[in-house]
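User: Good morning. I'm curious how magnesium ion would be positioned relative to this chain. Could you predict the structure with it bound?
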Amino acid sequence: MKFVRFATARHPQGVYGLVGGDGLIEVLRGGLFDAPECTGEVLKEGDIVRYLPPVDPPNILAIGRNYYAHAMETSDHPPAAPLLFIKANTALSAHEANIVLPSAAPTRVDYEAELVAIIGRRAKNVPVEEALDYVFGFTCGNDVSARDCQAGDGQWARAKSFDTFAPMGPYVVTGLDPGDLLVQMRVNGETMQQQSTKDMLFNVPCLVSYLSHSLTLMPGTALYTGTPSGVGIARKPPVLLKPGDVCEVDIAGVGVLRNRVVAEAQADGTCAGTMRLP
Ligand code: MG
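Assistant: Good morning! Here's the predicted structure, ligand included:
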């Protein structure tokens, strides 16, 4: 199933919808994890005036250097165990919202296309074989990163947590095998990253199990599972995000997450832009 969360003129606070194969959206009553019911109201995607982040995560967890080729383009060795860091919840952003280049770190902001797992059930000390039972579904994420801060701070929290640096969406897709999905990043239509999730050093079941042995994963937790090779900072010459750029995270079977880059001075102060699908 494919869920989307959005606001319309009739639902300014936001609702969930179930997207059908015909592109029509059935409006749901209730939250994603409480068996939401159909209301009988049907919309077209064109009726959406604003996409909302697909969940309100209790935590945004992320894994660094989880693809060998990316680990080697940004360091000299792959990690021996999943490398966890946390993005602030206030960085959360939606499909078609702007990525705001902060005036505090304007020069070296980078993209990272990632498959994001959404936890659906409280998970603690979960064995690898059962780990996928705790995943509700998957969405697209861009782990936007301020490389100046990442290199200079000694750890990554600030670099990964500027406002708008955690776009997710537009859909949460259930019933998907995350073992071999093509993850792509396009910037202004040009493919910058393109690699399958089968190349992860630690796959999704391994990550969920591993993390659940350290912290409780609550429903709605968003887990960025790492980015493929081809990030902007590792390209020659480096490709860093600038105002006007459009990032598209395209994951097979999951969707396309699109965000435009703006300078802080141009930001309108909201985390969600208005849009209309073609
Ligand atoms: Mg990342």
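The domain at 60-268 is CATH 3.90.850.10 (Fumarylacetoacetate hydrolase; domain 2). The radius of gyration is 18 Å.
Let me know if you'd like a different ligand tried.
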